[in-house]
Amino acid sequence: MSAVAAYEPFFYYSWEHVPDALLANIMAEFSYHGGKNLVFSHIWATRILSEPQFSSRLTRLLRQAGLNMGETHAPLGQAYDLCCPDRGRRESLLEDHRRAMAYSADAGCRTYTVHIGAYESVYYQTPNEVLRPYVLDSLEKLLPTAEKLGLVIALENSYERSNTPDEACFYVEQFNSRFLGCCFDVGHAHLMAPAPGKERQRYFSEIDLAWGDSLEEYPNALERMAPHIVTVHLHDNDGYSDAHALPGEGTIDFQALLPQLLRCPRLLSLQTEVRTVMGKTPLSVGRLVHCFQEIFARALAQ
Questions:
Q1: Pure H helices in the chain
Q2: CB 33 within 8 A of CB 289
Q3: Closest CA to 73 of 118, 104, 117
Q4: 284 within 8 A of 246, measured Cβ to Cβ
Q5: Are the C-beta atoms of 285 and 24 separated by less than 8 Å?
Q6: Which of 151, 152, 150, 156 shows the shortest CA–CA distance to 135?
Q7: Cα Rg for the chain, rounded, in angstroms?
Q8: DSSP states along 247-299
Q9: What is the C-alpha to C-alpha distance for residues 245 and 267, in angstroms, rounded to an integer?
Q10: Run means of pLDDT, 10 residues per run, the chain, 302 residues
Q11: How far is 34 from 30, CA to CA, in rounded Å?
């Protein structure tokens, strides 16, 4: 993979807040500002499962705007978690992922980012040892589909016990398949990293829900996950909340981080995951695209 290709990110957008009548307008804005690639978001992937005809419409809109779509974020939440223990949901959960993976491959995606799952860990404090057999079963049954489609399933690190860098890497190393890797979420890693003067009481409330008084910070997420990283979620925060902010609005040093990410041997793509609607301040498509163009240009110039 060339450095130039790696510096053409796939842009996430908060499509759940966009009425269908405005889809073409937002896509035109990305095209106008030079944002060539869009993430196949979990919003679209979930919608297509219940509304298959939306897939052809989406393809047509992208073609009209001159955009590419790729790098799927899979449907997410309790009903789609790989660790879901609900016997009544297990088979339909896996079938939903297989269908979403097929649509992803048809759209030209190379990676399929999926959550291991947080619900059981957070709300029932279910130990990872109890959840792992469900995750292993899910991956064992989904990997043949990934191989058939030429799609890499990417396990994302987050900020719960069930989604630590060690947990994500455990499954990748267990299967040792080129169709299974990691999605390195920069913001989540920064949130869970220790820092001088960092104060436990300043963390946002979801950390309290997930960890209680036993918070375990993780100092070397990138080093742990680097051999397995196939895609990346880029967004910023202040180290205390999962803000999904624009680079420069938090405390992540992207100029130092990007060259490290590009050295990951399995890296296929970079994705933005900035919250574009309902954030602290209004965010235009132009500002989103130009911000990442600028930080990529600075990193390339080093």
A1: 3-6, 23-32, 42-50, 53-65, 90-106, 119-124, 128-149, 165-175, 186-192, 205-211, 221-225, 254-262, 285-300
A2: yes
A3: 104
A4: no
A5: no
A6: 156
A7: 18
A8: TTSSS--HHHHHHHHHT-TT--EEEE----SSSSS---HHHHHHHHHHHHHHH
A9: 23
A10: 59 96 98 96 97 96 95 96 96 98 96 97 94 98 98 98 97 97 98 94 92 92 98 97 95 94 95 86 92 86 70
A11: 6
Residue whose structure tokens are 């190393």:
173
Other residues' Cβ atoms within 10 Å of the Cβ of residue 229: 23
CA dist., res. 165 & res. 181, Å (int): 12
- Please say whether the beta carbons of 8 and 269 come within 8 A: no
For 180-207, b/e burial (b = at least 16 CB within 10 A) is: bbbbbbbbbbbbbbeeeeeeeeebeeeb
- Look up the CATH number of the domain holding residue 259: 3.20.20.150
The pTM for the full model equals: 0.95
Residue range(s) defining the domain that contains residue 274: 3-300
Name the domain count of the chain: 1
pLDDT of the residue at 235: 97
Instruction: Kindly state the DSSP code that residue 236 receives in the 8-state scheme.
Output: B
Quick one: tokens of 118?
A: 């947080």
Instruction: Provide the pLDDT for residue 53.
Output: 96
Residue 234 tokens read as: 């880029």
Task: Give dist(CA 182, CA 31) in Å, integer.
Answer: 29
